[in-house]
Amino acid sequence: MTFETTVQPRYRDLDPMGHVNNAVYATYLEHARTAFFREAVGRDLADANVALASLSIEFRRSIDRLGEVTVELAVVDLGTTSATLSYDLRLDGETAATAESVQVALDDEGAPTPIPADVREAFERHPE
Q1: Measuring CA to CA, how many Å separate 106 from each of 31, 52, 68, 111?
Q2: Is 127 or 85 the better-scoring residue by pLDDT?
Q3: Which domains are assigned to the chain?
Q4: Which of 65, 69, 70, 82 is closest to 116 using CA atoms?
Q5: What is the model's pLDDT at position 77?
Q6: pTM of this prediction exceeds 0.90
Q7: Which among 102, 32, 37, 23 has a CA at the least distance from the CA of 71?
């Protein structure tokens, strides 16, 4: 089961051409990860001791107005110390972008460490 949340674009997200600037898409993904950790994992992302190791976005169409954007998130790979998340950003049911990120669990010194059991269980409940 995937996780889903919504983002409300703001006027300041728009560039001079009238659509959401491409860099803002990463902020929408961060919003989805934050909501996922809070609602599905039961932790604030700021307290989860994870780092974003990689992020890739494939743009499919412009988000060209201030309508609600739906972000669907799923866990596509779960390793010992990292998880790969996929995203589908949609406006009016139409995909505007797809993305993938890798989150790495860190110990107190900042080195990769095994994903805690409760986080792993939450990730396992949201496969693609």
Answers
A1: 21, 11, 34, 5
A2: 85
A3: 3-124 (3.10.129.10)
A4: 82
A5: 96
A6: yes
A7: 32
Residue holding tokens 């950790």?
Answer: 37
Q: What is the pLDDT of residues 56-106, one digit of tens each?
A: 999 999 998 778 999 999 999 999 999 999 999 999 999 999 999 999 999
For the record, the structure tokens of 118 come out as: 């409760």
Is the distance from CB of 100 to CB of 87 less than 8 angstroms?
Answer: yes
The 3 state secondary structure assigned to the chain is: CCEEEEECCCHHHECCCCCECHHHHHHHHHHHHHHHHHHHHCCCHHHCCEEEEEEEEEECCCCCCCCCEEEEEEEEEECCCEEEEEEEEEECCEEEEEEEEEEEEECCCCCECCCCHHHHHHHHCCEC
